[in-house]
Amino acid sequence: MKQRVITAIVALILFIPIVLMGGIWIDVLVCAFAAVGISEIFIMKKQIIVSWDFILALLATLTMAVPDSFFKFLPAFLNKYDIFYIFVMLMLVRTVLSKNKVTFDDAGVYTLAALYIGTGFHFMAAIRNAHLGLAILGYVFAVVWSTDIAAYMVGRKIGKHKLWPVISPNKTWEGSIGAVICAVIIAAIYVTLVPTGRNNALMIILAFFLSIVGQIGDLVESAYKRFYGVKDSGKMLPGHGGILDRFDSMLFVLPVVAFMGIL
């Protein structure tokens, strides 16, 4: 527990100032997070990090993670998705060049992971750097973190009915419902105190759905960790696991916030 507390304090001391500064600082941070995230996928799959496969997957991930303004140098007929697709094609070519030592399944995992991780972290920076973005990102953190904390505490206190025991045996329906209720309450308090430039009632209703989406993101990560037979996605954060362990819910919630036009 002491290790977890120390790690959390140090991480917040480093993370919060960068979020507050925004701009290029958070752009670099999310790219670093994305790079670590895709490396954790390779480690869970017991694949070699120093390889052409990792380089291609990393470049595909960063293509999705970097700010859209990074691609302004491209001619009009190209965009970031075209670049991403080029890396996908190269990953498929690797199945041929490696004589199927790199399989089609491997290429599929790397493509999906690059899209999932890169897009999620991209929107962390995109939301922060938008108009009133700090307030919106703070709202997202408040909803996701209150969901995680309440799900654990309520589930531990009164949880009796397993939510999805095959995937995550410790999660309960009571914890999940309590988490949604807590997230809505925290969101209501947050938007009352912090101007977000959005309709307060809408933001409170949105918290209900984001809490559920965040819990789904948590279960998705639990599913692939169970598939690969690991407890944590990585060991970057002592006592807390890897980057994907800490941002599993965010990687689902942040794109939803952006897609719903909250930016």
Automatic annotation (TrEMBL):
TM ranges are: 6-36, 48-66, 78-97, 109-127, 133-154, 175-195, 201-222, 243-262
Q: What is this protein called?
A: Phosphatidate cytidylyltransferase
Q: What's its EC?
A: 2.7.7.41
What does the record give as the reaction this protein catalyses?
A: a 1,2-diacyl-sn-glycero-3-phosphate + CTP + H(+) = a CDP-1,2-diacyl-sn-glycerol + diphosphate
Q: Name one GO molecular function term.
A: phosphatidate cytidylyltransferase activity
Q: Which GO terms describe its cellular component?
A: plasma membrane
| Enzyme class, UniProt record, top EC level | transferase
Q: What is its main location?
A: membrane
Give the GO terms filed under biological process for this record: CDP-diacylglycerol biosynthetic process
Pathway membership, UniProt? Phospholipid metabolism; CDP-diacylglycerol biosynthesis; CDP-diacylglycerol from sn-glycerol 3-phosphate: step 3/3; Lipid metabolism
